[in-house]
Amino acid sequence: MCAIVMPFVHRDVGNNHLVGTIRELIRIEGCFPALRNLYLNNNYLTGGIPAQLANLTKLEILYLSYNKMSGIVPLGLSHIPRLTYL
């Protein structure tokens, strides 16, 4: 659970040489309820896409290209109504 709710709508941390997994990078449970755009492209992220990203129900853009990720895209992402770019 998140101790502080962040009112971010747009979060761009692309091209920052980030290393690790998405799960390590952000704590998803209730922390970003208004997030619409999440750019994590051009980093060194590994692992899979966490199923918890489906909890970001206002998400419209999820940009993950040019990382070292593997695995499947969680089915829950297909249920985010406004997600138009993955």
UniProtKB/TrEMBL annotation:
Belongs to the RLP family. The keyword S-adenosyl-L-methionine does not apply. It is a single-pass type I membrane protein. This is LRR receptor-like serine/threonine-protein kinase. Gene3D superfamilies: Ribonuclease Inhibitor (3.80.10.10). It holds the Pfam family LRR_8. InterPro entries: Leu-rich_rpt, LRR_dom_sf. The keyword Cell inner membrane does not apply. It is found in: Cell membrane. Keywords: Cell membrane, Glycoprotein, Leucine-rich repeat, Membrane, Receptor, Repeat, Transmembrane, Transmembrane helix. GO terms for cellular component: plasma membrane. It comes from Prunus yedoensis var. nudiflora.
